[in-house]
Design goal:
heterodimer, A: Rossmann fold, Rossmann fold, Dna Ligase, domain 1, seven-stranded mixed β-sheet, 24 helices, B: alpha/beta, six-stranded parallel β-sheet, 14 helices, globular
Chain lengths: 714, 359
């Protein structure tokens, strides 16, 4: 990043120009200038209006070129047809950043002008935020260059939003919820600056404790992944994404293509980057507030304190859902709670202080939990009862929060009538993390724990980087060149096999028989049992076409199978060009898995792993990750699938060669990363044997792009 | 067994043997055989030396017609033993001329044991498999069987085929049992117009069978297998019968005005993204919908098909190619298709002079 385009100048400009400033109160230009001034911005403010004169008491300039000093940030809020000219003037003025509020560009199909804006900016070292945005708020310099609410509460939450209207609404909502903001930035059309750029600043910004992203679409996913991985090592990131995938209407040529919906990939990649994904705005804001104001847990032991068994069980259910582990050592629980719990209560977890508990009982119990080192987090629940003085309770909870809230995370949930609801409103105003619904409360603690584990893993994980040189990329590119020369975008079995050999992927022996005589010879040479498969560029789904015969034990079966395969192939597609029948060593049975890799529109190369075989599209037990991947990440991906226990060994079976699977995942990923011509690779099945016995790639499918690409890594 | 077979030959107690041959593909040889076996009050055996409707499952290889005939005849022979092979390459690899003759006679002896009549079904066309000595005339010679010719198609084709065989095929070693003319659109008109000419050639016509639309109907399940289709919904309707085909490539308003669209038990061929066409098909009398180009319809459309028990079959080809494949498809009999089997028995019984076979 050059000095000129250092992202710091977007968030901490020393001077701001408003191109389109106005003295009319109903104009956006007026509102922006007013917000900047009322927000307490300490730098220079330059209203730009061709008519000149004072605006809000500040002298305006007819053009940005008339300003003497430097301009770090120019906010443009003039009609779309004048924006290009304004950008050119900004370029002349050597403005560092543009915040283009104006709409009417790519969001309405006007790509040409938007591209022109970016082109001018890039040629002159400027960066562009927007267009089609509401602006930027940055607490560091008290800069409110938005046309949203003017009074923004300062705090530790940074919001990056792709929706202007939602972003403005979030400013108001955060104020009501007593959530302080360190920044809120609208990215709009993302013609230049996107989330990845903004994250670079927010990562370093001390005031930012939590980052919330509202995303509608991802353009440069690979950059975003890199940025997120850096950020989540230091602070939590929460994402909301709209537009859940419409699964592609086409049944794709590969299983990976059929299974890789846009939302599945997004979900997997966010998880891979350590980002927590919220389902709703309410949930996201709850988490933001909690994570920015509550301390992180130091261990996994959560305790539930409740005056009602039913709500306690609900909380336990919620803990399971949100990944909160309950303390379960009876001796420790006894030590902490025996003295502070009535005899007829329960000191198991949930700790039941009974329906007769009063405010002081809560206070004593909570203090015991806060003070004991074996308790890492607290969930405090209550139902309004006849003996529970809500006013007194409110005071107690406020006191406990004030005295102990900074030591360990605690969430509360109380349920009752108007008094209880009033109490909740009051306490939330004091930043006590209290909720009407127990699930809302526990989900916040869950978010805290996800962040805790993420940071712990980031600290302790030794990144085992895979050396891509084990894959002979040049040899693979040679195979691809031959396939291209033959006018195909699909590798035949012998070609796919050569790619696997170049990648040192373990495969069964195979030979291509061009006639029955060869088929018999090869079967005898390889040794029984063998498998036979049709080889034809016109027949991709061999099993569906009756082009595969398994477990052939002798010459007679080989002859019958050859006959059947050839007959079926001709029946399936009379015009198919048949190269022959592949005779393959039949591998012994093991655990069938699938490894797929393809290029996602948003995130670039992604890899898939799951339970394999021909039913993969029915079982859908798969996980995705964006490339590049290291061994630890590959292992996490494997653990994500529901069938992971099968690989660990069940019902007396041995553990499978998971290390072999990991190596294959990384090799397949490397092939896709380094060979841009390849759009899809699929190994299905990859059979995993017992640990030490390795894995075998039984069937491989490789597809190329329709037109040749350049080298990915030169 | 072979010895016993030839002993019976010498004794003159051998059963009657007929090679059922045709000049063109899909003349109806198998249907005629089924009809004859149903009508004749004799124990019938069946042999199909060169298979053409291959089935391969769990390393078993057999012919579709063989399985059908073993079921309808109620014979004990396994379908795998009724054919010697399917592909020229394999048969050439395994046998020379003497070997194939030996194998043929072995198979015949096996299936003919305790039978009164043996029907041997030849391949499609008189010359089929001649390079491997399994053509119709070779079969008749090797097995000392009479040749029963089945001709079908357009009237001109029927006449051409009969005349050609009579005039140009030297069958000194082969005795003609006669000709059965099949699938004639208007039998009375045909007889009035052409029978005299055919008989003047000296050809023994054993019967003229009418074309029956019902014999062209196919169950949806059959289409699934022969189109290599994936069933993505409406599995409950796989036994429905398809009586006509409609290609849904036009607008819905044009489709509903087309008289073919109003037919019962129709099959619609259309792309999966034509939700409009699929919906209107589901609202009318439709046996199944074939979705082309691997194009999946929305989930709610599939749900409607499930509720209506209308199978949705997914194929990878475009509409034109799919329509072509279906057009070329032979509506084979299935073993549980009792109405068709009964109809065949009736047609053969009424139209064929079965006793003349043995004259």
């Amino acid at each position: 990043m050059s000095e000129h385009s250092n992202i710091q100048f977007l968030f901490e400009p020393r001077s701001v120009a408003i191109i389109g400033a106005s003295s009319s109160e109903d104009k956006i230009g007026y509102k922006i200038q007013r917000n900047i001034m009322e927000g307490g911005f300490r730098g220079a403010i330059y209203p730009i209006n061709p008519k000149g004169g004072d605006i809000l008491g500040v002298p305006s300039y007819p053009s940005i070129l008339d300003i003497e000093g430097e301009v770090d940030l120019a906010t443009i809020v003039i009609p779309a047809k004048f924006v290009v000219r304004a950008v050119e003037e900004c370029a002349q003025k050597k403005v560092k950043f543009l915040s283009i509020i104006t709409s009417g560009f790519s969001e309405v199909g006007n790509w040409a002008e938007e591209r022109k804006i970016v082109e001018i900016a890039q040629q002159n070292g400027m960066r562009v935020l927007g267009p089609n945005i509401f602006g930027i708020y940055s607490a560091e310099t008290s800069l409110n260059a938005t046309f949203g609410p003017s009074d923004v509460k300062r705090g530790g939450v940074a919001i990056i939003t792709q929706s202007g209207a939602l972003g403005i609404a979030m400013i108001g909502k955060t104020k009501i919820e007593n959530i302080g903001l360190s920044a809120i930035v609208s990215v709009g059309n993302k013609s230049d600056l996107d989330e990845a750029d903004l994250l670079q600043y927010l990562l370093r910004d001390e005031a930012t404790k939590v980052i919330l992203m509202y995303i509608e679409g991802v353009k440069n996913g690979e950059r975003l992944v890199e940025a997120l991985k850096q950020v989540t090592k230091k602070k939590p990131v929460i994402a909301i994404k709209s537009g859940r995938s419409k699964r592609g209407a086409m049944a794709a040529a590969s299983h990976t293509g059929s299974l890789a919906g846009a939302d599945e990939i997004f979900d997997a990649v966010m998880k891979q980057c350590g980002v927590t994904r919220a389902e709703t705005l309410e949930e996201a804001l709850n988490w933001c507030k909690f994570l920015s104001t509550s301390p992180a847990p130091r261990g996994e032991n959560a305790v539930i304190i409740t005056n009602g068994g039913g709500i306690g069980v609900l909380a336990a259910d919620a803990c399971e859902k949100y990944g909160v582990n309950l303390a379960d050592d009876p001796e420790t629980m006894k030590e902490i709670f025996e003295e502070v719990t009535p005899d007829f209560g329960s000191i198991k977890n949930p700790v039941d202080i009974t329906g007769q508990a009063m405010a002081q009982d809560y206070e004593i119990c909570l203090e015991a939990a806060f003070k004991h080192p074996a308790v890492d987090s607290i969930i405090c629940l209550g139902c309004e009862t006849a003996v529970l003085d809500v006013e007194r309770l409110t005071e107690s909870l406020e006191k406990v929060h004030r005295e102990h809230g900074a030591s360990k995370p605690a969430v509360l949930s109380f349920f009752g009538g108007q008094d209880t609801e009033n109490s909740i409103v009051h306490l939330r105003g004091q930043s006590v993390p209290i909720f009407l619904d127990v699930y809302d409360a526990v989900s916040c603690l869950g978010a805290g724990y996800r962040n805790y584990r993420n940071l712990k893993d980031a600290q302790t994980k030794v990144e085992d980087v895979f050396d891509p040189s084990v894959v002979d990329i040049e040899r693979i590119k040679g195979v691809i060149a031959k396939v291209r020369a033959a006018g195909r975008t699909f590798l035949l079995a012998p070609e796919a096999q050569e790619v696997m050999i170049a990648a040192k992927m373990p495969m069964p022996q195979s030979k291509l028989a061009r006639n029955l005589d060869e088929a018999v010879q090869f079967a005898e040479a390889i040794g029984y049992p063998v498998v036979m498969k049709i080889v034809s560029k016109d027949i991709i789904h061999k099993s569906d076409a009756g082009g595969v015969a398994l477990d052939l034990l002798n010459k007679g079966e080989v002859m019958d199978a050859y006959e059947a395969i050839m007959h079926n192939a001709r029946a399936y597609d009379p015009s198919a060009v048949i190269d022959g029948v592949e005779v393959v060593e039949m591998v012994k049975s093991g655990t069938e898995t699938i490894i797929g890799a393809r290029r996602d529109e948003s995130f670039g190369p992604v890899v898939m792993f799951g339970l394999g075989g021909i039913y993969v599209e029915v079982m859908k037990d798969i996980a995705f990750r964006a490339l590049p991947l290291n061994r630890a990440e590959a292992m996490e991906m494997i653990k994500d699938i529901r069938s992971y226990p099968l690989l660990l060994g069940v019902r007396g079976e041995a553990r499978k060669d998971i290390e072999g699977v990991i190596e294959c995942i990384l090799k397949v990923g490397t092939i896709l990363q380094y060979c841009e011509d390849i759009t899809d690779i699929e190994v299905n099945p990859l059979v995993a044997y017992d640990q030490g016995d390795g894995v075998r790639a039984v069937d491989v499918r490789i597809l190329l792009s329709k037109s040749a690409k350049g080298d990915h890594h030169g | 067994m072979l010895e016993s077979f030839y002993r019976r030959v010498r004794k003159g107690t051998i059963m009657d043997k007929f090679v059922i041959a045709s000049t063109r593909k899909n003349a109806g040889k198998t249907s005629i055989i089924i009809g004859l076996t149903e009508v004749l009050q004799k124990k019938c055996g069946y042999l199909k030396p060169i298979g053409d409707r291959l089935l391969y499952r769990k390393k078993r290889l057999w012919d579709y017609d063989s399985e059908l005939l073993t079921h309808t005849l109620g014979i004990n022979e396994k379908p795998e033993d009724i054919s010697i092979g399917f592909e020229h390459a394999k048969l050439r690899y395994m046998y020379d001329e003497a070997g194939i003759r030996e194998k043929l006679r072995e198979q015949a002896a096996l299936v003919a044991a305790d039978k009164d009549v043996l029907f041997i079904e030849a391949g499609s066309g008189l010359n089929f498999a001649s390079s491997i000595h399994l053509d119709a005339l070779s079969l008749a010679r090797h097995l000392e069987a009479k040749l029963l010719l089945v001709v079908g198609g357009e009237e001109d084709e029927i006449l051409d085929d009969i005349t050609f065989v009579k005039n140009h095929l030297a069958c000194d070693e082969v005795q003609m049992a006669g000709v059965i003319i099949n699938r004639v659109k208007d039998v009375d008109d045909f007889k009035a117009t052409y029978m005299a000419e055919i008989e003047a050639l000296g050809v023994k016509v054993l019967g003229v069978l009418p074309y029956k639309q019902e014999l062209t109907y196919m169950p949806v399940r059959y289409l699934v297998d022969h189109l290599f289709a994936k069933v993505i919904g409406g599995e409950g309707g796989l036994n429905k019968i398809v009586q006509s085909v409609f290609v849904g490539a036009m607008s819905v308003s044009a489709a509903v005005q087309n008289p073919l669209f109003k037919k019962e038990n129709k099959m619609i061929i259309t792309s999966g993204d034509r939700s409009d066409m699929i919906l209107v098909a589901l609202e009318t009398d439709t046996s199944c919908v074939v979705l082309t180009n691997n194009s999946l319809p929305p989930a709610n459309i599939v749900a409607k098909a499930d509720a209506a028990n209308v199978p949705m079959l997914l194929v990878p080809w475009d509409t034109y190619r799919t329509a072509q494949q279906i057009d070329l498809m032979d509506p084979l009999l299935t073993k549980d298709d009792t109405p068709k089997l009964e109809l065949l028995k009736k047609l053969v019984g009424e139209s064929v002079k079965t006793q003349a076979l043995f004259d």
